[in-house]
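Section 5.1 Outputs to date
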Amino acid sequence: MLMGGFGAAQAMSFARNALLAHWLSKGDFGIAAILMLSLQLLETLSDLGADRLIVQARDGHRPRIMANAHAVLLLRGCITALLLFVTAGPLAQLFGVPEATWALQACALIPLIKGFSHLDARRAQRRLDNRPFVLIETLPQALALAASLPLLMAQASFAAVVWLALAHALTAVAVSHLVSRRAYRVALDRAPLLRLIAFGWPIWLSAFPLIAVYHADRFIVAHVYGLEALAGFHVAFMVTMVPGLIAAKAGHALMLPMFARALNNQPCAPRSKDKRDASSAQDMRDTSRAQNMRDVMGLLTSVTVLAATGLVLAFVGLGDHVIQLCFGAAYAGLGPLVSVLALMWALRMAQAVPGMALMAAGETKPLLVAGLLRATGLLPAYLIALNAGPLWQVACAGVAGEALSLAYVTARLRWLSRARE
């Protein structure tokens, strides 16, 4: 269900972007890429992981926890909207497209709208019930795709991207409230807020180096190579991102609750006042948790590595053909870039397993360190760009950063497992 739902959502998003690429000029599509990139940038920078605490914490289902998570989400939306509105002019000047200032300012409404999202779908994920979450993903994409052609026929410019993004955000928030079973509540309580901050600040800080790999490379391409090169790089990134994102979203929806359930497992053991009996019962619980984690880890690692390998092989063989089929002959010759970006996404997929295991244990600080290691690829990418290297070499820097990050997260999880045993 997850693969089908997320696959349908990403297929519709991909079809919408392909339609935009065919309909708009390369310059207008480059501006559209800047709009989407700016939104992704600020959303990533403002992520505190409040929705994941609802899944990870043993008491994450409680109404007060969810109400405070809603408050954090709403505050995030307000701050992000304000930042985007204020920086719209400088961003447009940075990329040499002052005519897009109004579009960036209009896009500031999107994070504000998303701040009112209902998080009850995350509570359902605790029971491995992903139906509400899948609906939140698919229905807005269906509406945006259906509206794409009429909007492009009425206004064949980057402005269509703004209206489509606003429609998508409004629909997503509406669906999140329609599928929820609890009333929407907002609260500000000291203890839950401190828990949310303690859990989320490493996730928030890790977003900054994450941008160095997933966003700064496109900023570098736009600044050094120009808008047309950005359009090609953005297309290659989107093509490889779609299957990687489907696997990542489906995996995260399963991995975090599965690891959390394995860690919280407490087999029945006799209660006794005798200290030796109590110690024996605790040993039973620890052994059971460790075995559960090993079983879940083995299963998820095998499936993820298989999917990642298939992703790389598919794009190495068919990447350039897929690009031309979906976006037209103007984007031919991107095969090497697609292959390298597919490898980057495959390494990112492999990291999801140990990363979600650490998050389920409440260990979010290693994710910050992993992000810093991943960002080490930024300087080589910039130097390659300054020396007019081909785009696929710029992407290689991201692959090196992902490999280093994967090695660290895996080693950190092993260390934590030994320490807890």
